[in-house]
Amino acid sequence: MRLTMYTDFALRVLLYLGVKESNELSTVQEISDAYGISKNHLTKVTHELGKMGLIETVRGRGGGIRLKLAPSEINVGATIRKTEDDFHLVECFNCSANKCVITPVCRLKNVLHEALEAYFKVLDSYTLADFVENNENLATILLGEKL
Amino acid sequence: MRLTMYTDFALRVLLYLGVKESNELSTVQEISDAYGISKNHLTKVTHELGKMGLIETVRGRGGGIRLKLAPSEINVGATIRKTEDDFHLVECFNCSANKCVITPVCRLKNVLHEALEAYFKVLDSYTLADFVENNENLATILLGEKL
Q1: pLDDT tens readout for residues A78-123
Q2: I want to staple A18 with a disulfide (CB 3.0 to 4.6 A). Which of A71, A111, A115, A136 is the partner?
Q3: Under a CB-based contact definition with an 8 Å cutoff, are residues A28 and A40 in contact?
């Protein structure tokens, strides 16, 4: 059971933008350099985060990306719900494709739903602000001498 | 975020064997027929469940498989921990392969661990007995006229 690499990278982009001053712009290249991960992957990730309304792009010379919302407004559970393809733990979670014959009487599916709810209850109780506020060490690692 | 098809099928095998009388044997063919899923997949799944000590095989004519433990002794969380390859929600959950530079100061990883713990806390509170005891509808669907 894993989250997608896409979600992993999306969260890293948000952390990076979250440790910057609110209006300061970042480039995909600098985020790629900071984490040592593929610029191509990050370009796709930032494009999607833009479509989700979490980040915004300033075009032109000196342009870049930044958070569109305050870190305290970016809920972790809500973000992961958007970045993951689905949470179909087992076949019957996908109503349209489910062929499992015991679905109507299966108590296991209820327990798996209960477990997934408990998982999200934790994630829903945090925002990006919880990770970036008063976290100078994170800023130092990601932004280095710029601080 | 999904469980593997392997875990899904393993749980279905345990449910099937759990609704049978304790000493009665089942064949992979009849489980395959009951759920309408591949016998080849189920053969692999039952082999692994045997190695995990959850089911046992009686060989020879009239042989088959049955639970090795009482349903109340088969914990759901423990079973899923065994049947899943891993629970590496993000890269840093895999200590040996992790290259994420912010790991030492990242609070997000702690929150993801907290969420995963909440998920397992639910699963750990159930056993196979909770799904099969007093569930005549499940027995009717899986075993049909045999009841």
Answers
A1: 999 999 988 899 999 999 999 999 999 999 999 999 999 999 999 9
A2: A71
A3: no
Residue of chain B minimizing CA distance to A137: B105
Gap from B64 CA to chain A (nearest CA, Å): 22
Fill in the amino acid letter for A104: P
Task: Give me B81's structure tokens.
Answer: 């921990």
- Residues B136-140: contacts with CB within 8 Å, 24+ apart? B137/A104, B137/A105, B138/A102, B138/A105, B138/A106, B138/B15, B138/B19, B139/B19
Gap between the Cα atoms of A90 and A83, Å rounded = 19
CA distance B94 to chain A (A): 11
CB A103 within 8 A of CB B107: no
* Closest approach of A60 to chain B, Cα-based (Å): 30
Q: Could you report the predicted ipTM of this complex, rounded to two decimals?
A: 0.91
